[in-house]
Amino acid sequence: MASKAKSRWADDEADAALEAQLKREKEEKKRLKAEKARKLEAERQAREAAATAAAQQEADSTNGPPAKRRRISPNRETSQTAEGRDASNDAPKLLRFEGGAFGRCRSVENYDKLNDIEEGAYGWVSRAKEIATGKVVALKRLKIDPKDRSGLPVTGLREIQILKDCDHRNVVKLQEVVVGEDTSRIENIFLVLEFVEHDLKSILEDMPEPFLASEVKTLLQQLASGVAYLHDNWILHRDLKTSNLLLNNRGQLKIADFGMARYVGDPPPQLTQLVVTLWYRAPELLLGATRYGPAIDMWSVGCIFGELLTREPLLQGRNEADELAKIFELCGVPTEDTWPGFRRLPNARALRLPPSASSKTPGAGGSAVRARFPLLTAAGAALLGSLLSLDPDRRPGAREMLAHEYFRQDPKPKQEAMFPTFPSKAGQERRRRRETPNAPARGQRAADLGAVDFSGIFSGREKEERGGGFSLRMV
Question: Which GO molecular function, any one, fits this protein according to its record (predicted)?
Fold first, then answer.
């Protein structure tokens, strides 16, 4: 009988060797998997045993005498080993506690940029949408000079720290900090903030009629509430202005842009005088004060109060000297009675002021706030005048402002739900650049006023009309 012919598909020696190798690799993987499972089971049993022992020890300590305390510090006597003994075996064992670890920030690529909003002194702000949820947010990219070897500026660190610590309905909310894909570039740091439709500056520029008295009170109440929260937590904003106040379509105001904010103490430390945008800067800062407190924010609140009434900045100085002249024209010339000790400030020693006390015109050197706002109620004029007091000690705090009679008089503050709405420029287009001063830049030098002559700032005041514009005669 003829032998069976060999098929051309039969396995040869190479195929047999490959099959044997694959079988060995499969068995090795099964062995490693089983060994890993045994280790995990042993660790689990060890943890359960440790937990049981700890629970038993706690129960024994509550029922009987306390157990002997375990030594966790080195014992100098027992750590010194005799000659010929192994020191590693006698070394004391210290307890180790596992600590937390820093996690990596999320990437900015999780957000889709929609449009630019504006550029500020300390960052660029854009409108963006989170890809996963579709939520619209505001992305603020910190301004960092890549050539600066000092790393992340202290202003950025303060802004992140303060925004993470703040939780108030009238303070903008920080959601997270994200970074660019190229983490080697330090300038790719973004703050993810809640998106608010408007800023107060744009609304004042575009609205055809000024806010109603009830609406002004609502805005001031929310501003004072947010400022009071900051001051209660030892935070100075140091750049309050209408472009840093956001307003949503539900009538809720939020304080934003904390690039110049910082924590302070009591007594306040020595600080830089180059803070606050020029038109909202308090007179003590212009005169070189380096120790100041919440009163500088309250001066800015007074400037914002006046701007809400007139729809334009109250004190638009071209430089520091011109800003002081406009302040003295509105608030009066400082004297030792109205502002004790102001001459001791660095920039006040060489000032030439008009002799207001011996002026022939009555009230020529006093405050002109009442004449500047004749339609404001007496309580409103008193509040505005106190906020714009030259002496910082005479300005009310934010809590005192909230309790002022001005807010209890008719018309009462309008409810936020009844507040008018406006088309959102931030949500539709890039905001146009405004001819307004920016906040002081980091590293900028403060101006030295030197000898400035303010003696002629009240010339022509005798021609001004005073009072409310009319009077009634009872017959």
Answer: cyclin-dependent protein serine/threonine kinase activity
